[in-house]
Amino acid sequence: MGPRARRALLPLFLPFLLFLLRTGAAHRRPPQPSVPSTLVIGAISGIAVCVILFVIGVLFRIFRKRQASRGAMGDYVLAECE
């Protein structure tokens, strides 16, 4: 492709190139949160997960004890019937 052909194609591609430059400049990054606020949110989330797991563990132990006592009660009833 010679220099004349390149000059002839330039007016065709110039509007497209300007469009790309304008759209690229229009998409700016949103402001990032500050590091201390991110750290606080992470710490609160971690503490919340630990508390939830602790509560689930306590409830699970209570539920297992109740199930065990129901089974033992059934054994006593069966022993009296025999």
From TrEMBL:
<keyword id="KW-1133">Transmembrane helix</keyword>
<keyword id="KW-0812">Transmembrane</keyword>
<feature type="transmembrane region" description="Helical">
    <location>
        <begin position="38"/>
        <end position="63"/>
    </location>
</feature>
<keyword id="KW-0732">Signal</keyword>
<keyword id="KW-0472">Membrane</keyword>
<protein>
    <submittedName>
        <fullName>Homeostatic iron regulator</fullName>
    </submittedName>
</protein>
<feature type="signal peptide">
    <location>
        <begin position="1"/>
        <end position="26"/>
    </location>
</feature>
